[in-house]
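Journal club prep — side note

Before the paper discussion, L.F. wants everyone to see what a predicted structure for a comparable chain looks like in token form. Sequence:
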Amino acid sequence: MFYYLNGTVAHVAPYLAVIDCNGVGYACRTTHQTLAQLQKGERAKLYTYLNVREDAMELYGFYTENERSCFEMLIGVSGVGPKAAISILSSTTPEGLAMSIITGDEKALTVAPGIGKKIAQRIILELKDKLAKGQLSPGGETYGGTGVTVIPENKSSEAAAALAVLGYSQGEIAAALKGLDVEGMTLEALIKAALKKMAQP
């Protein structure tokens, strides 16, 4: 229904940002990461997700499309609702989440308030399974074209798998990683550099 809101930041509070669009204030539930980018009185663009329940409709807003994609990915995991997804994304970046899933680092997820070991394990298990089946990349492509569980063998393949978790296609990932100093960069730096390249027009 809403792809994004582009307006003035009218109000900020913990987990909440109100964006004034031509005199209408839209209350968006959001993360600490997004709130850190907002300044009251300044213009901002938030990518949105409308969560519809029987008793309520809630709007969620994110500073980047990657963060919104991760939110949608998380609430697709059984037992993970919007509140838990916001908690996780307030404690880590999209690339940090992708790394946690690829490396099976459940401790990185349990840092988020309200996220226990069982939920963290379920998130890693279900999202790794979706990655293996090619359900996390546009067009339903299977990462690596194999249809089997991805087991990264080196830094380059770990970065590629993490980018696939964030929803990028094989072609986009290959182009983004080309020319980067794979051996000289940390995994997180490599992912961030690839994301930066893909964000360029």
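L.F.'s comment for the group: The domain at 4-63 is CATH 2.40.50.140 (OB fold (Dihydrolipoamide Acetyltransferase, E2P)). Keep this in mind when we get to the figures.
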